[in-house]
Write a structure and sequence with these properties.
This protein is α/β, with parallel strands linked by helices. Helix content is 34%, strand content 19%. It has a single domain, classed as 3-Layer(aba) Sandwich (Aminopeptidase). The chain is built from eight helices and eight strands; from the N terminus they run βααβααββααβαβββα. Strand 7 and strand 8 form a beta hairpin. Pfam families: Peptidase_M14. InterPro entries: Cytosolic_carboxypeptidase, Peptidase_M14.
């Protein structure tokens, strides 16, 4: 049978994910890889997510900066995560292309762009955590906190206490801030941060160093959290219980 999100006339719920806008933040690539690997797998949860949501993923927004070994800027010397408001097709081509795609989807009545998540790595904080936006509408602000709270339940290395919501003027040109102001009140925009170093378990003295696998596990848990957010758990196929042996 056709997937629910591909049936004629069905509204497509879109989750847009980007990563590596800052070339030196390599953990973001491993988190993004974990998301991708899980979504294209044959895992029962992944199948349900593919049937009900459309995922758009741009895993590397700054490929020239990565190639050159830059820490934060592009080939042209720009911090791309400060130019979302008016990206140049010549100086910021990846940002320009992604922004045009997002605006095109936003203007399509058959598409509901519900999430934008930009993945970064943090050089001083521990754990994974999120930055969100501040809205005058209290109900919208409260709804925005739902996804990070669910992720905190699914990922032992994600910290809701480190998650914060702000509208710092310095961050006005970031993807989270710009798209948070552009999209409608049913859309939620986040920056997902993960530590370069470690995450804390069982009290402040127990720090567990991050590994590539741990970063990818966080990515898998991000993907799985959409199952909880959209309340699709009942659709996951459960493995058959083993037949009891008779004597």
């Amino acid at each position: 049978s056709a997937a629910a999100n591909l049936r004629p006339g069905a509204e497509q719920k879109v989750v847009f994910i980007t990563a590596r806008v800052h070339p030196g933040e390599t953990p973001s690539s491993f988190v993004c890889q974990g998301i991708i690997d899980f979504l294209v797998s044959q895992h029962p949860v992944a199948k349900v997510l593919r049937d009900h949501l459309v995922f758009k993923i741009a895993p590397m927004l700054n490929p020239d900066g990565v190639y050159l070994g830059n820490y934060r800027c592009s080939l042209m010397g720009f911090d791309l995560n400060r130019h979302w408001a008016n990206p140049s097709p010549w100086a910021h081509p990846t940002l320009h292309g992604v922004k045009q795609l997002i605006i095109e989807m936003y203007n399509n009545p058959k598409i509901n762009l519900e999430f934008y998540i930009d993945i970064h790595a943090h050089s001083t904080m521990m754990n994974g955590f999120m930055y969100g936006n501040i809205f005058e509408d209290e109900e919208r602000f409260q709804r925005q906190a739902v996804f990070p709270k669910l992720l905190c339940q699914n990922a032992e290395d994600f910290s809701y206490s480190s998650t914060s919501f702000n509208r710092d003027a310095v961050k006005a040109g970031t993807g989270r801030r710009f798209l948070g102001g552009l999209l409608n009140d049913t859309s939620y925009c986040y920056t997902l941060e993960v530590s370069f170093y470690s995450y804390i378990l069982d009290g402040p003295t127990t720090a567990v160093p991050y590994t590539e696998e741990a970063y990818m596990k966080l990515g898998r848990n991000v993907a799985r959290t959409f199952l909880d957010y959209y309340r699709l758990n009942s659709l996951v196929e459960r493995p058959l219980a083993p037949t009891p042996k008779t004597r």
